[in-house]
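User: Just a sanity check before I run the rest of the batch. Below are the structure tokens for the first item. I only need the designed sequence back.
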């Protein structure tokens, strides 16, 4: 069980339990979703680090090929253990139980003096502060140390930091050198998903959220089931969501489920992007990109929906009128910008009401309100914005021919349709709150909340209690995603599959 198999992709489950008994149980669970196990000994509080025999209950007969490691504090370790003690445990444990051991490059010479079995030795470098600009030089130093596998892991502050790591992977792959390489943090998630297809020996996953051994680590289940990592190759068409933050997004679950349903060789990634210009130039634009991948298209979310416009070659009329793009299509060497928010928003309303002449109240005047107002006005609705800052809203919506009123006057508006375009009520933000005072929607026919997490918000609950027909933000989320999918693929989207994936993601 301790010889390493040769699957195309290896998912290594990181075991971060605090007790030997808990770690043993976790290792058994890992067998259902992983190809290998990394046992983090520094997490264990009841292990005798001075005796190699203490490892026997854990690794004498592990369920999967196993790596043992015991990190130094300055490279992510969880407790202070004398270097000679922890390194001796790793070196002797690897020899006695025929497992792999991972030691830091900074402590290599001490480990080498203990006569390790180099065929089972992984030498690693971790930088929790940054991806150093001289990454290639760091790699040369690490790779010069005799070992079976070399590992280099850095921290990302932006998705663009991953470019250097992908280049390093390409270089190592072409020299047939076993290497584990990835970038930590939310901005480095793409390296965890795409790394194996670019030559990384393995990628790490946790057994559950909250049990990660490093920042940005996905679960083994997410890697397998959401991102279908075993099917990702260098030819896979790349899509994803560009924004900051993005890890809360359910879009990866929605789109990847749709690709899977139709058997399409696409993957949808969360791409945390702060420097939009650099990312577009290096990762997206066909004329300048340095990242070697098959870019198909991207979703664009906050804070980039307006900022993206100058980087596009073609923009559809609706997106221009709204002043926001939420979808990029990479096509024939050009970047096309689209806005699917407006149509995604309006479709559920059109199923239940004619909007011509309807009095519509839109609460809030942020980015989401632009698409809402555009869609409502295009269908002949009479729109009033209820806002906190009337002057700011007047500047933004000067060309939209809408009425603008202070939020406090909403209860007297006698609106027939009310839309909450604010984040009020969102989980993790202001859950349990509503932008509309209790009792202010008597006589309202339809209440529509763009918040989709939770599905049932205080705003919708209050509206329903006053006799309103309610529409959840999930309908808009799915609607805009369906249009994005069809723009990228030219295929009819599997709508119910996408809805089911969103619900599963929202209610894990």
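Assistant: Here's the designed sequence for the first item:
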């Amino acid at each position: 069980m301790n010889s390493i198999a040769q699957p195309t992709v290896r998912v290594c489950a990181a075991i971060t339990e605090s007790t030997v008994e808990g770690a043993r149980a976790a290792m058994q669970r890992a067998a259902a979703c992983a190809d290998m196990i990394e046992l983090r000994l520094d997490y264990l509080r009841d292990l005798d680090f001075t005796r190699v025999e203490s490892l026997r209950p854990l690794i004498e007969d592990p369920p999967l090929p196993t790596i043992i490691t015991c990190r130094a504090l300055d490279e992510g370790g969880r407790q202070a253990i004398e270097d000679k003690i922890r390194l001796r445990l790793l070196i002797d444990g690897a020899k006695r139980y025929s497992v792999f051991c991972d030691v830091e490059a900074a402590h290599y010479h001490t480990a080498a003096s203990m006569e390790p079995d180099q065929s089972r030795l992984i030498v690693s470098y971790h930088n929790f502060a940054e991806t150093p600009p001289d990454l290639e030089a760091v790699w040369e130093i690490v790779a010069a140390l005799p070992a079976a596998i070399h590992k280099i892991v850095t921290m990302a502050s932006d998705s663009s930091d991953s470019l250097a790591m992908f280049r390093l992977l390409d270089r190592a792959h072409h020299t047939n050198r076993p290497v584990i390489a990835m970038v930590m943090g939310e901005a480095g998630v793409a390296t965890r998903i795409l790394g194996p297809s670019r030559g990384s020996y393995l990628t790490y996953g946790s057994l559950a959220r909250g049990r990660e051994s490093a920042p940005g680590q996905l679960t083994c289940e997410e890697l397998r089931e959401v991102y279908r990592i075993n099917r990702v190759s260098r030819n896979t068409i790349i899509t994803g969501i560009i924004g900051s933050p993005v890890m809360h997004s359910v879009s990866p679950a929605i789109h990847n489920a749709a690709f899977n349903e139709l058997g399409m060789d696409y993957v949808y990634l969360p791409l945390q992007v702060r420097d939009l210009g650099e990312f577009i130039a290096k990762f997206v634009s066909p004329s300048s990109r340095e990242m070697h991948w098959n870019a198909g298209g991207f979703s664009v979310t906050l804070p980039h929906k307006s900022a993206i416009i100058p980087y596009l070659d073609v923009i559809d009329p609706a997106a221009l009128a709204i002043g926001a793009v939420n979808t990029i299509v990479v096509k024939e060497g050009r970047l096309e910008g689209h806005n699917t928010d407006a149509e995604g928003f309006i479709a559920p309303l059109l199923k239940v009401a004619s909007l011509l002449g309807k009095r519509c109240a839109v609460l809030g005047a942020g980015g989401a309100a632009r698409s809402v107002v555009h869609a409502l006005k295009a269908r002949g609705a009479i729109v009033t914005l209820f806002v906190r800052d009337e002057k700011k809203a007047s500047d933004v919506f000067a060309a939209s021919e809408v009425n603008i009123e202070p939020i406090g006057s909403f209860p007297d508006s006698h609106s027939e349709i009310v839309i909450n375009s604010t984040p009020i009520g969102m989980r993790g933000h202001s859950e349990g709150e509503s932008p509309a005072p209790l009792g202010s929607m008597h006589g309202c026919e339809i209440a529509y909340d763009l918040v989709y997490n939770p599905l049932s918000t205080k705003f919708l609950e209050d509206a329903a209690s006053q006799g309103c027909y309610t529409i959840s933000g999930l309908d808009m989320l799915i609607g805009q995603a369906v249009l994005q999918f069809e723009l990228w693929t030219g295929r009819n989207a599997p709508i119910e599959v996408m809805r089911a994936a969103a619900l599963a993601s929202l209610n894990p």
